[in-house]
Design brief:
five-stranded antiparallel sheet; alpha+beta; 10 helices; 22% strand; 4 domains
């Protein structure tokens, strides 16, 4: 009878634990990260009673386990990191796309307005009203470039803030993980059972961490979890954490980088996944490129318009002055440099510039210039200047030499949109005319003709000196300076002329084309375009810049270049949106699969309640019967 009571008691105890566990599941049905727990019960060892054989001694709880699938949990964690990166990146790229393509805030409409104004100027070069439209259009475009650059710079600041906040969260989660590792080890001390709720809490912390950055985990024999980020950089090992910090970039003070606290190395280039990966990917793949592209557009606009403007003549008969002023390339020395060499960069050919920043490094007595967009080496040498892609890199060692490992970041156009300014202050300064005028003498008897001419070197002091081209025969001519008619100066003599192909004459910074069949004695003149207020030749050249290949190795005009920039951003927006949708679906599926295994089903738990309640009542009934039998024996013994 004692054995019957003891067996019944074990049933009561197991049923009680089953009820407690089921109640725990129901209470935590909505707890994030909670895994359903089950009571694993086994029969106790039987007792040998002699010839009758073995008699059972009841039941006991082997363990209370959590329903957990390691693979599914890791899948959810991995998909979460990727989904969060894409979500963060997609949102930020969408902001850039909206900024650049907005018809009311973008650059493209105002760029077209300026070229339309130049076209109108070519139709009425002396009109003050038309000139006013040109200046207003130019100023509006400059203002818009400044505004867009300011917005991009604000976005850069927002990225820095996001990185700081995310790193703070990562450090907090890492500390919590190290703390819970310690609690798990203490709880498991001397026991083979697992502290299920602590393990769930740790998994949930890892899930939260994967929203911030991609993680990899390793579970040690003592039950602690080590967490690694990036390409294997440690964040948590056992009870210890490796705290991260945000520090100013070694190159650009406008950017921040991620590094280990203290004197630890920067690890930004290794980090992917989560919000942190999204911020870093957006900055390196989209923001830097967009700001540099906008700067390249500004530099290209200023350079091409200035080239044409300074070859022309303004309304007061003066040679044109620069239409725009623009900045110069930015050179940033690494804060890790040990040498004292100073590096500067200048633009030698804006049309040859590429859509890239550059890194200049010094090792073993050699400077190496690397284009960062494709990591190709474009120039090298033991000293400066180095030239490539429209840049000239000067290296000044007068104050000290470079040291091995020294590096410099060169940003040819990053601040181009910020620095561009309208240089003209009056409508009369617009150079719509050319400073030279060509013509044929009225007494010419041949069919020869001279072009309207163009300026090849505006700096030539003799540009507007009167010159005559005098044919000495049908196949030869002289070029004569007639600034002093009484004492002409021979500039070129007996120049060969082929009537079938014509000839080009280069002199005094101008260029003209001769054609037809001049006769001996025919004269053509090139002179100062005094009183040429109605001349529109330079205005036509300004309007022609709309379709002139002035950018990216002289392969793209300004409008087409900006269109390509918008297309790139648009393609990124679409690609990220598609990838985000797909990744969200994968995450939802993985989460559903995990929850199907680990989640609490209240209907199932209600059934378990009934099952354990009935088991408890049945065991109690056995206990009651055993008690009645025992009382019967006592009554017999008392007789």
């Amino acid at each position: 009878m004692v054995e019957i009571a003891r067996t019944a008691l074990t049933g009561l105890q197991v049923a009680q634990q089953g009820l407690a566990t089921t109640g725990h599941n129901i209470a935590n049905a909505s707890t994030p990260g909670y895994s359903r727990q089950t009571v694993d019960q086994v029969a106790r060892a039987p007792q040998y009673t002699g010839p009758g054989g073995f008699v059972g001694t009841g039941v006991e709880v082997a363990t209370i386990s959590r329903t957990y699938d390691k693979f599914l949990t890791q899948q959810v964690r991995s998909h979460t990191a990727t989904q969060q990166q894409l979500s963060t990146q997609s949102d930020l790229v969408g902001q850039v796309n909206s900024l650049l393509t907005d018809s009311s805030a973008g650059v493209s409409p105002l760029l077209q307005n300026l070229f339309d104004a130049f076209q109108s100027l070519s139709e009425a070069p002396a009109s003050t009203a038309t000139r006013e439209v040109v200046l207003n259009s130019a100023q509006a475009l400059v203002d818009r470039l400044h505004e867009v650059d300011d917005q991009l710079q604000t976005l850069r600041g927002n990225v820095n803030t996001g990185l700081r906040d995310t790193v703070t969260s990562i450090n907090s989660l890492a500390s919590s993980l190290a703390s819970i590792n310690k609690q798990i080890v203490i709880a498991q001390h001397g026991s083979s059972d697992e502290p299920n709720d602590l393990l769930d809490q740790r998994d949930y912390l890892m899930q939260q961490l994967s929203e911030k950055v991609g993680v990899q985990t390793v579970i040690a024999d003592d039950g602690t979890a080590s967490v690694f980020i990036g390409s294997g950089q440690a964040l948590v090992t056992g009870f210890s954490t490796y705290q991260l910090e945000v520090r100013t970039s070694q190159y650009d003070p406008a950017d921040v980088q991620i590094a280990y606290s203290g004197s630890g190395a920067e690890i930004s280039n290794y980090l992917t996944g989560g919000q942190l990966g999204g911020y870093l990917a957006f900055r390196s793949q989209t923001l830097d490129r967009a700001q540099s592209d906008l700067g390249l557009l500004a530099q290209g606009l200023a350079d091409s318009v200035n080239q044409v403007q300074t070859q022309g003549m303004d309304l007061e008969g003066q040679l044109g002055t620069a239409f725009f002023s623009s900045g110069s390339p930015t050179v940033l020395a690494s804060t890790h440099n040990d040498g004292s060499a100073q590096v500067t960069a200048t633009l030698t050919d804006v049309g040859a510039l590429q859509r890239s920043d550059y890194e200049l490094s010094y090792n073993g007595g050699t400077y190496t210039l690397r284009r960062l967009s494709d990591s190709s080496v474009v120039a090298s040498g033991s000293s400066g200047p180095l030239s490539a892609d429209g840049l000239s890199i000067d290296i000044d060692t007068s104050a000290g030499a470079a040291a091995d490992g020294d590096r410099f970041l060169i940003q040819p156009t990053r601040n181009g949109a910020r620095d561009i300014q309208l240089n003209l202050t009056g409508t009369e300064q617009i150079a719509a005319a050319l400073p030279i005028h060509t013509g044929a003498a009225t007494g010419n008897i041949g069919t020869g003709a001279i072009s309207s001419g163009s300026v090849s070197d505006v700096s030539d002091p003799a540009l507007r000196t009167p010159v005559e081209i005098r044919f000495t025969s049908e196949t030869t001519f002289d070029v004569v300076d007639v600034s002093d008619p009484s004492s002409p100066v021979m500039l070129q003599s007996a120049v060969s002329y082929d009537p079938s192909s014509g000839a080009t004459v280069l002199q005094n910074g101008w260029e003209v084309r001769l054609s037809g069949k001049p006769q001996n004695g025919d004269v053509f003149s090139v002179s100062n375009n005094a009183g040429g207020e109605g001349d529109n030749r330079n205005a036509l050249a300004l309007a022609g810049l709309a379709t002139a290949d002035t950018l990216v190795g002289h392969t793209s005009d300004l409008n087409s270049f900006y269109g390509a920039v918008l297309a790139d951003i648009g393609a990124q927006t679409d690609r990220l949106g598609t990838a985000l949708s797909a990744q969200t679906a994968l995450l939802d599926n993985a989460t559903a699969a995990r929850d199907a295994v680990s989640g609490v089903n209240l209907d199932e738990e209600a059934a378990n309640l009934l099952k354990y309640q009935q088991a408890y009542q049945a065991s109690a009934q056995v206990m009651q019967i055993a008690n009645e039998m025992f009382q019967t024996l006592l009554a017999i013994a008392q007789r």
